[in-house]
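Second attempt. The first submission of Tubulin polymerization promoting protein had a stray character pasted in from the spreadsheet, which I only caught after the job came back as garbage. Lesson logged: always re-copy from the clean sequence file. Corrected sequence (226 aa) follows.
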Amino acid sequence: MADNKAKSTKPANKTPPRSPSDPTKDRAAKRLSCDSNSSHEGAMAGEISALEEAFRKFAIHGDTRATGKEMHGKNWSKLCKDCQVIDGKNVTVTDVDIVFSKIKGKSSRTITFEQFKEALQELSKKRFKEKSDEEAIQEIYKLIEGKAPIISGVTKAISSPTVSRLTDTSKFTGSHKERFDPSGKGKGRAGREDLVDASGYCIIVEYVVVLYKALICKFHTPFMKN
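This time the job returned cleanly.
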C-alpha cells in the first residue's frame, strides 16, 4: 500500500504545463502591444532620448567629477543660453534662475533629469505662449535635443584707452622705448644690455692696425741694430 501511495503522489512533483496566463506570454503580449503603438508615440520616445543625452552633456560640462545624472545651476543656465531657450523677451536669465530655484529641493543645489523636464515645462509656457501646453513642450524639446555645450574661443583683450596706452610700444619713453624696435617687436637681450657688435666691418679698427704696423716697421729696425 505504501508503494502504491508513493507512485500515485510522484506525478504531482512534476512541473505543470504553462497556462495561458504565464508571465512570459504576458510580457510578450505587452511587447507586441508596444510595437503596435502609433508612430507619434515612437517619435516622442526618440525625442526624450535625445533630450536626456543633451542633459547629460551639459550636466558634466566643466566638472570632471560629474556623473551626468544631476545638473548644477550654472550648467542649467548655460543650457538655456546655448540652446536659445532664453530669447530675451519671453524668457530671460532671471526667469531661468527662478524656475531652477523653484524646481530643485530646498537643501539641494542640483536637479535630476525628471526635475529638468519639469523646469522645461515651466519655461515652455512662457517661451511659446501662442501654442498649447503639449505643443510648447515639444517645441522647447526640439531646441535642446541633440545639442552640446558651446566651447568659447580665446578671450579677447579688453579695448580701452588705459590698456591701449600700456600696450602701445610707440608711446614708450626712456629705457623702455629702447627695448622694442619700430615695429613693436622686442629686442630681447639687446634691448636690455649694451652689446658689442664685432661681426661687421669697422674702418677705425683697420686704421689702428695699419698705424701700429707702420710704427713697428719704422722703429723696429734701428732698435735691433743698436
